[in-house]
Amino acid sequence: MAIAIAAAAIILLAVRPRPVPGWVWPVAGALLVVLLGYEPPLGAADALVRQWNVLLFIFGLMGVSAAAQESGAFRWIADFVVDRACGSRRRLFVLLFLACAAVTLLLSNDATAIALTPIVYEAVSTRAPGEIRPFLLACVFTANTASFGLPFSNPANVLILPHPQLVAYVWHLGPPELAAIAINLAIFLSFFRNRLDGEFPRHRANAPSPAALRTLIALCVLGIAYFLALVLRWPLGPVALAGAMLSLAVAGTAPRRAAEHISWRTLVLLCGLFVLFDAVTRAGFVTWMLAGLHAALGYGSLVVTAAAAGGAALLSNAFNNLPVAVAASYVARATSEHVAYPLIVGVDVGPNLLTTGSVATILWIAIVRSYGIRISVGEFARLGALVVPASLAVSIAWLRLLSP
Predict the structure, then answer these.
(1) Residue 137, pLDDT score
(2) Please, are residues 44 and 35 in contact by the beta-carbon 8 Å criterion?
(3) Count of other CB atoms within 10 angstroms of residue 182
(4) What are the backbone angles phi and psi of residue 199, rounded to the nearest 5°?
(5) Degrees (nearest 5) of the Cα angle 134, 175, 401?
(6) pLDDT-based confidence at 399, cuts 50/70/90?
(7) What confidence category does residue 403 fall into, taking pLDDT thresholds of 50, 70 and 90?
(8) Separation CA 82–CA 128 (nearest Å)
């Protein structure tokens, strides 16, 4: 019953029947499992307290994104990319795709979804008018695909491996990350080949404003702090919060303006998902995952790697990737770090299949709809059906080569 309630909440979150806001369904599901006795109240509270690091991490990222938006730092990046496109829409698409990948890798997938999507929309619609959907879809697909290369590129990575060994992490997931980005770009260019034709008037990018320059420097400092935190095995949540405070201070962003950029509904939605999935875990979900992996052990390391990555990808679309990352963290602790790597790939790349798969996608959908653009589940899934298997395949193949 707990699994059925969780699945119903996720389906309603995907469909979003009007006029009920999306965050209501996970919260209602969480309250229902508590009221029906499938989740004790103290267990629900403990499920939220256990995720303090990832919630603080996401909150800090929202603050960093607010500073980058308010200071004009991201807008300058977009202007710089438009200038380098030299009037070609296809070249502009490639450069914006790579810019989104870089921001995701160094800041997080949520930063790309929250902050870069509006900037990309503005840059393309005003400077290179034409078909906008490929550019917007590239934002979210890149946000998910480029988010497993570094431990801090996705909050889910922090959940599965709270204290990873940086060199080992990059060696296992860095090469397939680059390959997955290249494959995604090739698929997009082929899928949208007729929509990316055309030229536009060239625009000269102005120098960044003092506030934007200070914010860009603060973002570089935050990136260095992330690496130091990993080396020193510090939690990333407080680092992200400190980075947000520094970025907002140097950007000169007023507290009220910063608060307007915080997606409070998303934080509430996440709390509901964490409680829901804790109830699912109590129903034996993690035990079932471990049993599946142990059964796969008899068929060799390739099957184990594929089962971990593919299973995490499918479950992320069924329940959202952050709660699945919580379950994956239990599995990783019960097995080994070599199993954690394909779990991270599945949890990060898998959400490119359905619009409810990741928090970044949920945030992106809300932003895109505010522009009057509707992305159907079918349209998203058709592209995801090409991207997800290819990204998983190249990652599984690399991890198999490194498996003991």
Answers:
(1) 94
(2) no
(3) 12
(4) -120, 165
(5) 125
(6) very high
(7) confident
(8) 8
